[in-house]
Amino acid sequence: MQRALLLRSLRLPAKPTAILKPLNALTTPPLLPIHPPTTRSASHATPQSIPSPPTASDPPSITYSQHPQGSANDKIEEITELYATAQDEFEIAMEETEKMSVYAEEDRKAAREELGKVQEAYRKAVEGEDGGVAEEVRRRVGQRIRELEQGVAGMEEMAMNQD
């Protein structure tokens, strides 16, 4: 009964399967007319200006990793991902060490392992053939890695003083 009264007051059809139109123009945006795609400048990509994915018959194109700056960015991205994991492990290990929990030793071991992975990737990047890439890697991530090394060393010292 209440539904019927509500439907009558809204002047909607009684059948719920009927397609309902918006109650007012503010609830839904108006439908825009469909226009054929046009070409625009590169900053406004349209379906016509988006390149199709390469196929096996396409010649290889130059990628960023072939450029020294791209190579540095790739290495820095890899080191940054490893650093994020190591930082997370360090934070967990530090928390468990401060609480003197039974998990602290295993968490410190995991933090040392992740730090070792970061150090290895950093060492490979810095000792690589390209001096420009090595300098860029040193400049952009070296300080963070040194801070993490110092943090892990401080955590180990804290653990030894607790015993």
Automatic annotation (TrEMBL):
Residues 40-49, 58-72 have a biased composition (Polar residues). Residues 76-114 form a coiled coil. Residues 27-74 are annotated as: Disordered. Keywords: Coiled coil. It comes from the Eukaryota. This is Uncharacterized protein.
